[in-house]
């Protein structure tokens, strides 16, 4: 059974590109083997991640992620059964919110910055979908995150 999980968290340290690279490398290695796809958006010291896949697999990964000392204050924004994936082409893709068109950020938030703690789960999901669909997607090496 397919599910999608959406959560937010705060980085414990300022987000160095190498730290994001490490997380992405782990994800690109692990996620395809477990049928998981998704998006990891970061900015403003905050992570917003969508995970899609089998219910047990997504649960197991979320539990591992929640134990990760690199972030804290995890908030589950959405967990739902889905008919189809929204991010089928990405084992995990990284989006740097700081490089996204400000108008796109403002469309889904009150202050034009990534703040899923003050945004509805539906709006955060809509933001991720638009980032993936549009030209505002930024990744150092886009192919790296493809499944
Ligand atoms: P181990 O590799 O045994 O590591 C144990 C702990 O050490 C980790 O929980 C972490 O706290 C710490 N650690 C591991 N590597 C580093 C490092 N390079 N620098 C600093 N500390 C480290 N993993 C995925 O497979 N798929 C994902 O989609 C995914 N998304 C993530 C999103 C975020 C925001 C974060 C912070 C992590 C994500 N991870 C993801 C990584 C995940 O949290 C675990 O590190 C990974 O599942 C390995 O788990 P493990 O228990 O085998 O940890």
UniProtKB/TrEMBL annotation:
| Domain called BLUF: residue spans | 2-93
Checking SUPFAM superfamilies in the record gives: Acylphosphatase/BLUF domain-like
State one Pfam family annotation. BLUF
Superkingdom of origin:
Bacteria
Coiled-coil annotation: which residues? Answer: none
Listed InterPro entries = Acylphosphatase-like_dom_sf, BLUF_domain
Q: What is this protein called?
A: Blue light sensor protein
């Amino acid at each position: 059974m397919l599910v999608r999980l959406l959560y937010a968290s705060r980085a414990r340290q300022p987000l160095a590109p190498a730290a994001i690279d490490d997380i992405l490398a782990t994800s690109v290695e692990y996620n395809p083997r477990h049928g998981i796809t998704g998006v990891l958006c970061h900015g403003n010291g905050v992570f917003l991640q969508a995970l899609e896949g089998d219910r047990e697999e997504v649960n197991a990964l979320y539990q591992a992620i929640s134990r990760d000392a690199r972030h804290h204050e995890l908030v589950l924004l959405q967990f739902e059964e889905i008919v189809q994936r929204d991010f089928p082409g990405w084992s995990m893709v990284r989006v740097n919110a700081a490089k996204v068109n400000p108008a796109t950020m403002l469309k889904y938030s009150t202050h034009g910055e990534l703040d899923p703690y003050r945004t509805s789960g539906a709006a955060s999901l809509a933001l991720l979908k638009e980032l993936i669909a549009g030209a505002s997607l930024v990744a150092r090496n886009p192919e790296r995150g493809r499944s």
